[in-house]
Structures are given as C-alpha cells and as structure tokens.
Specification:
This protein has 162 residues and is of the alpha+beta class. Helices cover 31% and strands 19% of the residues. The chain has a 4-stranded antiparallel beta sheet, with helices on both faces. The chain is globular.
C-alpha cells in the first residue's frame, strides 16, 4: 500500500471542517485488513463505512455503505454476480489493467481475499449521510481507484477517457 490511511483521515478532517462539519477524534475509526484478509462479518451497530480495496500500488475500489447495507459491506464485492457493480466483476473483466489475468467467477473471491489489502473507515452513523458521501468523494478524488464508476465515466491517468 503506497498511501497512509492516518494521513488521509487527517486531511479529511480539514476538508470536513471547511464544509462546516466538526468531527470528534473518535468519530471515525480506521480498520486495516492487510492481505490475506477475511471479509468483515458486519458493521458495528450505529455505524456506516467507506472501504478501500488495494493491490500493491493500485487502489482498486472505494465504496461506501450506510448502516443498513450489510451485504454490500461484507460479501458483494467478492462475488461477481451479486450486484450491479462489484470489485469481483471489474477484476474479471479488466484485471489485465493491473497485471492480473485468468480470474473468473470461481476463483475471484479467493484472489481478492489473498491478494488485496482492505481498509475500512468506520463512521458513527450520527454524522449523517452527507459526511459519508463527502468521505467517499474525497477518497475517490485523492486515490483515483482503477475500478470506479462505469468505464464510460472513467478518466485514464493521462486525462483522457478510459
């Protein structure tokens, strides 16, 4: 991992402050799950999260879940057919962009658990969805994940459409 979650949170606190949001020191916790990792079993009660999957220098996915989105948080990104947009489906279709080939619906979940780092930013749900959205947008802008949004919406590293 080439980025530091603690420094990202420190920078986000400044962004939130500029947006008029005051964050208590314990309002956002960082959970580090280095490879190989076990998917989380669920969100702690009264929380929501922004999560990041990375592989070496590549940030693959930044996503968010509200307090009632357990499946999105725990399982969907590991299963290509579980939802409309998942990390698993992106890796099967476009894994060669990060030097990974041969993934399919049978082996992708194991590959994600074995080879990706996962970082979860756990937020107190009382902060509200606007803070959740701001944190996700901040992390997407800062980290520029490989598999974010639809292909037609992505901008490549040189500024053109991907």
């Amino acid at each position: 991992m080439t980025w530091n979650p603690d420094l990202l949170l420190e920078d986000f606190r400044r962004v939130a402050s500029m947006a008029g949001v005051s964050l208590a020191l314990n309002a956002i916790a960082i959970e580090r799950c280095p490879a190989p990792h076990v998917p989380p079993r669920g969100l702690p009660p009264g929380t929501m999260a922004v999560y990041i999957f990375s592989f070496g220098p590549h940030v693959l996915k930044v996503g968010k879940v509200g307090p009632n989105s357990a499946a999105r948080y725990t399982a969907q990104h590991y299963n290509a057919g579980s939802a409309k947009s998942t990390l698993a489906a992106s890796l099967i279709k476009h894994g060669e962009r990060i030097g990974v080939a041969g993934l399919n619906e049978t082996n992708v979940a194991g590959w994600i658990r074995e080879h990706t780092d996962r970082v979860n930013f756990i937020l107190d749900a009382s902060l509200g969805v606007h803070v959740l959205n701001l944190l996700e947008a901040f992390l997407q802008c800062r980290l520029r994940p490989e598999f974010e949004g639809f292909a037609s919406q992505r901008i490549d590293r040189e500024g053109g459409q991907a």
